[in-house]
Amino acid sequence: MLALQVLINGILLGGLYGLMALGMSLIWGVMNIVNIAHGALIMLGAYLTFWLFTLWGWDPFVSLPVTIALLFVYGYCLQRYLLNLIVRAQLFLTLLITFGVEVVMVNLVRVAWSSDLRQVTPAYAGAHFKVGGITVPYVRLWVFLTTVILSVTFLLILEKTRLGRAIRATSEELRAARLAGIPVAHIYAITFGLGAALAGAAGGLWGMLFPITPIMGGGLTLKSFVVAVLGGLGTMMGAIVGGLVLGIAESFSATYLGPTYPNAISFGLLVLILIVRPTGLVGRRGSA
Amino acid sequence: MALLEARGVTKRFGGLAAVADVSFDLRDGEILGLIGPNGSGKTTLVNVITGAAGYSAGDVLFRGDSLRGLPPYAIGRLGVSRTFQIVKPFRNLTVVENVMVGALFGARGGARVLAAARGLAEEVLDFVALGHRADAPAEGLNVPERKRMELARALAMRPTVLFLDEVMAGLNPSEIDAAVGLIKRIRDRGTTLVVIEHVMKAIRELSDRIMVLFHGEKLTEGTPEEVLTNPEVVSAYLGRRFAEQSRA
Amino acid sequence: MKTRWAPVAAGVVVLAVLAAAPAALSPFLVQFLINLFMLAALAESWNIIGGFTGYASFGNVAFFGVGAYATGILLTRAAWPLALALPAGGAVAMLFAGLIGMPILRLKGHYFAIATLGVAETMREIVYNLEITGAGTGLVMPISRSPIPFFYLMLGILVAATLVNRWLSASRFGYGLIAIREDEDAAAAMGINTPLYKTLAFALSGAFAGLAGGVFADWITFIDPDGVFKVSTTIQMIIMAVFGGMGTVVGPLLGAVVLASISELLSTQLVSLAELFNGLVVILVVLFMPKGLAEFIRKREFSVRQLVRNLREYRV
Q1: Which end of chain A has fewer CB within 10 Å, C or N?
Q2: Structural domain span for residue C134
Q3: Cβ contacts (< 8 Å) between B164 and chain C: which residues?
């Protein structure tokens, strides 16, 4: 019975990891930018949700669309007016600049809102229900359902809409996309905006479950990367699968090995995957 | 015993055999031409022999010792070198520095002292008629110069066997003539060569023997006369209809 | 890569002045200089793997921390004198870098960078949880009365690291590393044992970072996981090397001098402001001068036009 509980916990958390990784995977797949500031975007989303809740009493689920919209705009501008300038530079420079963005964001938040721990605690925070011997906190369940809704919505956008097709075209064959008249600078910016929006949503949801601090992003960037690689780069389904795998792995290792090494678990998984099956669990062979 | 013996070399990517059961001997001091249409596996064969790609099957013996499983640097140190079809210059170094790398690390570990390596590099550059560009940044070279630098780098390794992968691509006729002369002089200095080319005139002039690859398999080998008039070879390059037409 | 004697002579003069300096300077200036030497040493050490070999590690602070803790543990738990604990700490860091380098250096590009980040994060976590490292509480070193020995130690490490960089710029091993950076496949084909060379470079880089960490531990007399495995330390060493000119001999040193000085002038109050400054510098440098000061010095021009040209070079 304990095993089942641990599994359920892992799945509930894993959905959130998948949502986080979706944003990173999208940006990586389309623009070949590994966004080290990804965790900072998640952090920003968490803080926005927190302030909307604390200052104006908005329920965190209700304020989520606002957070998503704001992060989208922020991400769009970041790409359009800053990152577009270095898109064709060598890998190291793009990594370095997103590193710089992360440092700036984290420290601005520190200066503005201090390093005090914050938490979003709506009235229903502790409520839970039992099924069989399994305890499920309502918040976790709703967070999971929200991640499913958001992930599916995003996948639909990518697959079925004109915008999604433009994004996929740009990602696969840049020159052809340009020739076909696709405004690449704009599409890149939208892509980053979408990635940031997903990160922000994940942050808002995360803030309902865990404490919020300016430096919460670092480990989350690493986790998102691990999940993206686990699932297989460039495959959105892979991010979701990878998220579930990481969530379950963390849940089991925390229960049976001890809660003190979460990063080591992610990192260990990363190294294992890179050695054994570099294209990830879902990715196709030869498509790394 | 031949200098280099390839036995049943096979390289598969997924279900496709890029190189299928290729065997040949390379005799000391000869120039072996390697021809075949695009995609016939010539570069892949070189990659496998020089350790840049793994074997699916088969082996290659160099002076009787197996090369299979050795990393590229070990094979280079044994005396088997190659040039790359798409040249790979060290962009941030000068021409002579590029060649010095070959001198420092080539056959049997190369020269250990920078000064000696520089001397060797300058000599090689003079040999390939690039001496006047020794201190120029590698980035600024034009196409024929880049090809010659690529060649110089491999030569500075003092190889026993040298694989040249389409060194004449992109050269005009007079540059091709110069290249043919240079390659002959390389052989005269004691290096055994395998030359991959599409320029038939050059291959005919250079090769003691020619080997033809088609869809990864060895189609035939023989003297330039035998091979270049062989209807199967013509058909492989130009299609069966054309071969039938020219026979009729 | 020929020797130019004027800068070398200037360097020796500065060195002589510095070596004579400490007694004459204010305590504040001494502390500032020790910190500067440390950052410059870290930048020079990073340059070995990032600048010369082209493997930009984002986690070298791991070796700084390992060195700090190895030295710290030997000082506190085993009561070794610094003269033994410091080289031992450096050796531990070097060994660690070599061992972890073997699997990690097989990765390329993004994977390598993030993996190195992961190493640093994981080390912090491990140290946080072990008894022998003092876990979350950290280690306390015996207080020493004067910072002067640390001044000389840190300066010595900086000089050694810079000399190693100098050696790399004009040696067979260095040529091998540079070839790996420029084109690893070609380098391998030309006879360079790339896995060995990369690992040696990584180990060398780790050694100096570890030595700096060891001195840091005894100088500051208190270390804890969050203090010695800081991401901001990695950012500083990278941006100083890049700003000065990565892959050059004195670029990282130059970058450290300039950036550390400005940072000191700006940040009298909040640590966050200094880090904010670093982050902004990173962004500006990547946009306007990715090849660093060294490029401007070599071309002998510093024009707005060049800055604009750099800005537009990599855009969409």
Answers
A1: N
A2: 33-254
A3: none
Query: How many domains does chain A fold into?
Result: 1
Q: Chain A: give the shortest CA distance to residue B69, in Å.
A: 19
List C-alpha distances in Å: C236 to A86, C44, C98, C157: 21, 12, 23, 18
Minimal Cα distance from A285: which residue of B? B14
Residue A237 resides in a domain: no
- From CA C279, how far away is CA B86, in angstroms rounded? 39
Residue C109 resides in a domain: yes
Residue A58 resides in a domain: yes
What domain count does chain C have?
1
C275 touches chain A (CB under 8 A): yes
Tell me the residue range of the domain where A27 lies: 14-216
**A206 vs C: CB within 8 A:** no
Please tell me which of the candidates C110, C118, C121 has its beta carbon nearest to residue A91: C110
Which of A110, A184, A222 is the closest to C121 by Cβ?
A222
Answer whether residue A20 is part of any domain. yes
Contact C117, C58 (CB under 8 A): yes
Residues 242-261 of C with CB under 8 A from A: 242
Complex prediction ipTM: 0.91
- Asked whether C70 and C214 are in contact (CB, 8 A), the reply is yes
Q: Please answer yes or no on whether A100 and C283 come within 8 Å at the CB atom.
A: yes
- Whether A286 is covered by a domain: the verdict is no
Structure tokens at C46: 């990073």
Contacts of B14 in chain A (CB under 8 A): 285-286
Run of H or E including B31 = strand B31-35
pLDDT digits (tens, 9 = 90+) for C21-76: 777 778 888 889 999 999 999 999 999 999 999 999 999 999 999 999 999 999 99
Q: Which ranges of chain C does DSSP label H, i.e. alpha helix?
A: 5-20, 27-47, 61-76, 82-104, 109-129, 148-169, 172-182, 184-189, 194-220, 225-228, 231-244, 251-266, 271-288, 292-299, 304-313
Q: What is the pTM of this model?
A: 0.90
- With respect to residue C305, please indicate whether it lies within any of the assigned structural domains: no
In this structure, is residue C294 part of a structural domain? no
CB proximity A161 to C under 8 Å: no
